[in-house]
Amino acid sequence: MKILNKMILIIIGLFIITGCSRDMILEKEYICNLKTECTFEHGEEYLIVSGLCGHSAYGVKSISSQKLGNKVIITIVIACGLNGDFETKIKLDKDVHEVLLGNDGSVIWTRNVTPI
User: Fold this and answer.
1) Rg (Cα) of the chain, in Å, rounded?
2) CB proximity list for 90: less than 8 A, separation 6 or greater
3) In the chain, where are the structural domains located?
């Protein structure tokens, strides 16, 4: 009976570990209290993005951004057992018109551009 109990505990432990062992990309739909705020520092424009990862037991592992044309794409990698709060500041060049988030490219900020 003791051997059976140990095996059951090992199997349960493996399920827990493997179910939470892979990193994922955080999508907008799983962010609580998502906030975007523009700031200016030393003549440069920045966007501060903050929120809370609401995806189960996951928390923020890393945040990166990449500029593609007139868009900036933010990627937030999440992993198990980490802190869920996050805040990042990205530089907004004058030609940036949108900031997107995650693999699905959800728009989280747009520049108000007035037509000429």
Assistant:
1) 19
2) 46, 47, 49, 65, 72, 74, 99
3) 22-110
